[in-house]
Amino acid sequence: MLIYNTATHKKETFVPIEAGKVKLYACGPTVYDFFHIGNARAFLFFDVMRRYFEYRGYDVTYVQNITDIEDKIIARSIEEGIPYDQFASHYADAFLQDSKALGIKPPHHQPRATEFMAEIIALIEELIKRGYAYEVEGDVYFDTSKLPEYGSLSGKRIEDQKVGARVAENLLKRNPTDFTLWKRSKPGEPVWQSPWGEGRPGWHSECVVMSQHYLGETFDIHGGGVDLVFPHHENELAQARAISGKPLANYWVHNGFLNIEGEKMSKSLDNFFTARDILRQHSAEAIRFFFLSKHYRSPIDFNREIIEESERAVGNFRQSLKEIDFLSLDESFEPNDQLQKLEAEFQAGMDDDFNSAKAIAVLFEINSLIRNRQLPTPERQNAAKMLVKLGRVLGFFQNLEAAEELPDQSKQLIELIIKYRAQARADKNWALSDLIRADLAALGIELKDTATGVEWSYKE
Ligand code: AMP
Ligand code: ZN
Q1: Which of 181, 355, 389, 453 has the fewest CB atoms within 10 Å, counting from its CB?
Q2: Residues 95 and 112: beta-carbon distance below 8 Å
Q3: Among candidates 325, 327, 307, 396, which has minimal Cα distance to 360?
């Protein structure tokens, strides 16, 4: 298998540390809001990576953290007047619910930073003891000038870092790239006790502690979105190297952005749609399909039309399975040469740095075999079994029994209600038409009467 390694800028053959095992860590959400559909790209991609390794016979340990200590969480909880821990755990729970709704298989461990405070403090103490960190007025910083290899992951060099727009001026720091390990708290902020007084840890230490706790000093793959390469992953790596002299992970893997109108979708830019909102209008499978039809490293534009197209594509697969009455078939099968060849193509695609776009193209080919009425039924049935087998590797067809077309059906129901409202209006039954509008509004569905008819939308 080839994996593109951010640390070396090239595709490398994957060699696990322990034969047959994969130890994978991907950065999870910072829980100060519902996660957005850009975050979903990262969560879905690492879910697929994990599923693919499992399909290839690896014993995978997948850890995804939940960052529940962070400046933005503190700021938002204060703004909304909700106690910090209650606020963070509300959005952490929402994250788990939405991940489930997206069909993401629960990682083996989902630690929260607050559960690792003692270990985080111990790491910072060790860094100070080794001369890699210094305390100033209750803050603790990592001294990047002490680590000659600092910048190796992102290619950034200390000399290039001017105190300025990107690195906020902080007179307490010795070098612009020095980063916070511990931050003294201000009045009103949540506090944890430490040898440096009351405060909280920096984000970069949390992930080092949680990943090493479950996966060991050096593990196979560390991942996240491309925005995390610098400073987050660079700073994680720096701490690990300072302690052990070894890399934190052998492969660093980063997904590209989901953009909206050419800009990164992000909570801080306030140009985002939550996964929760999008799931009201599109099925989890269509969202998965939308992302997987592009290579994970390419940027992708948020585009409702393409999500609609994805909806039709997954609907088409499901229709084929219905036609062949897949649920009545037993799972075992012996694929013929053609299906074996298609499975090999699927693998070749995924082996090449998780090229899910190629893998999806193979699913289409298999689908056309199911649809081909010239073929004998057993062959079409076997093609259906192959479609489900490989589709499941990408996370599709998890629950074929359940009426997963529900989002589509609920759209049809809304259209139907709008039709009845139009009839009420035609009958000049204004009371009924107003009642329908008000009842739909109470369900979060807004109607707009336009010259060309009624338009409806979910309330933002
Ligand atoms: P955060 O909650 O901001 O810490 O992000 C959680 C994960 O989502 C990280 O791996 C980010 O790199 C990733 N991420 C954030 N925004 C985007 C985006 N627009 N497209 C793809 N991945 C993203
Ligand atoms: Zn992290």
Answers
A1: 453
A2: no
A3: 396
Report the alpha-carbon distance of residue 95 to residue 89 in Å, rounded.
10
Q: Which residues constitute the domain of residue 387?
A: 305-393
Which bound ligand lies closest to the C-alpha atom of 95?
A: 1
What is the residue with the minimal CA distance to atom 17 of ligand 1?
38
Q: Are 443 and 335 contained in the same domain?
A: no
**Looking at the domain assignment, is residue 284 inside a domain?**
no
Computed from CA positions of residues 13, 14, 18, 19, in that sequence, does the dihedral angle turn out positive or negative?
Answer: negative
Give the Å distances, CA to CA, from 46 to 153, 204, 286, 420, 422. 20, 20, 17, 45, 46
Mutate to test the pocket of ligand 1, among 6, 32, 39, 265 (most ligand atoms within 8 A of CB): 39
Query: Beta 21-26 vs 219-225: how paired, if at all?
Result: parallel
Among 203, 226, 260, the domain-final residue is 260
Instruction: Flag whether 384 is in a domain.
Output: yes
User: Which residue has the least CA distance to atom 8 on ligand 1?
Assistant: 39
| Structural domains of the chain, count | 3
pLDDT at position 415, please? Answer: 86
Neighbours of 403 (CB within 10 A): 8
CATH code: domain of residue 329 = 1.20.120.640
d(CA 121, CA 137): 17
- Ligand number nearest CA of 73 is 1
* pLDDT greater at residue 342 or residue 448: 342
Q: What is the pTM of this model?
A: 0.87
DSSP assignment string, 348-361: HHHHBT--HHHHHH
Q: Note whether 370 and 407 are same-domain residues.
A: no
80: pLDDT strictly greater than 90: yes
> Taking a C-beta distance cutoff of 8 angstroms, is the pair 273, 315 a contact?
no
Q: Rounded to an integer, what distance in angstroms lies between the CA atom of residue 2 and that of residue 354?
A: 8
